[in-house]
Design a protein that fits this description.
Order of helices and strands: HEEEEEEHEEHHHEEHHEEH
Distance between the termini: 33 Å
Largest sheet: 4 strands, antiparallel
CATH class of the largest domain: Mainly Beta
Number of helices: 8
Strand content: 15-25%
Structural class: alpha+beta
Number of strands: 12
CATH topology of the largest domain: Jelly Rolls
Strand order of the largest sheet: 1-8-3-6
Number of domains: 2
Length: 237
């Protein structure tokens, strides 16, 4: 399970943009809570306005759309903030957040979070930066969906995950987030069977190894080449 270490976070999460003093101030406002694997942290349609800051573990953010399908929006890890948009806008939750593994958070009320943004401008700026990063990632996913074939989209998605969550290991780079093939399928808008076929192509070429909710990229350079060189959905790199 990935844990936020003191004084650091991956690029993009809210806490990554804060000084140690602002980080300590923000975390000191709330209370620590723990959730088990598969538990819901937030529920779509819930009117509550509390905010959670992830300290350890990973969650999936998804929503059920009008035709009943569940759409996976993102995976969030240590340093990320959850529920901030609902707290700021005063609207009901537009997505659910469910734990992929045991999770620890710091929970603040919406009023506490808003007061913090008003009185600590550096924290408000950090939130804006974090939201911009989310929007940029969402736009990249939409572009991939429109322009790339499914096999190439799988490779492109893995390249993005390596950049954001990669951890060097002896035999390559591990994507350090518990990730299922269904999660990938939901995020790129493809059928599970199609994603499985795309991953099999990458495995056959020695580019990736897959295990239970784990993917290790053995040849990151070749993965990037595949992501940029497979037009029209062909399976040939």
């Amino acid at each position: 399970m990935t844990t936020l270490e003191a004084g650091g976070a991956d690029e993009g999460p809210l806490l990554a943009y804060l000084s140690e003093a602002d980080r300590a101030y923000l975390l000191g406002l709330g209370v620590r809570r723990s959730f088990g694997a598969k538990e819901f942290v937030l529920l779509q349609g819930d009117p509550s306005d509390h905010v959670h800051i992830l300290i350890s573990g990973w969650v999936r953010v998804s929503a059920v759309v009008e035709d009943g399908r569940e759409v996976l929006y993102a995976l969030r890890g240590p340093g990320e903030v959850l529920g901030d948009i609902a707290a700021v806008s005063g609207r009901i939750r537009t997505a659910s957040v469910r734990c992929l593994e045991p999770v620890t958070v710091v929970q603040l009320s919406g009023a506490q979070f808003l007061a913090c943004l008003r009185t600590r401008p550096e924290i408000a700026i950090a939130m804006i930066k974090s939201v911009v990063t989310r929007l940029r990632d969402a736009e990249a996913a939409r572009v991939d969906s429109a322009m790339l074939g499914v096999a190439q989209r799988v490779a492109a998605h893995l390249v993005r995950l390596v950049a954001e969550h990669g951890r060097p290991v002896e035999d390559g780079v591990m994507i350090d987030v518990p990730l299922s093939q269904q999660d990938i399928a939901d995020q790129i808008g493809a059928a599970l069977r199609t994603v499985a076929r795309g991953l099999a192509v990458l495995r056959d070429r020695g580019i990736v190894d897959t295990g239970r909710r784990r993917i290790t990229v053995r040849r990151p350079g070749l993965l990037r080449a595949v992501a940029g060189s497979m037009p029209n959905g062909t399976d040939h790199p």
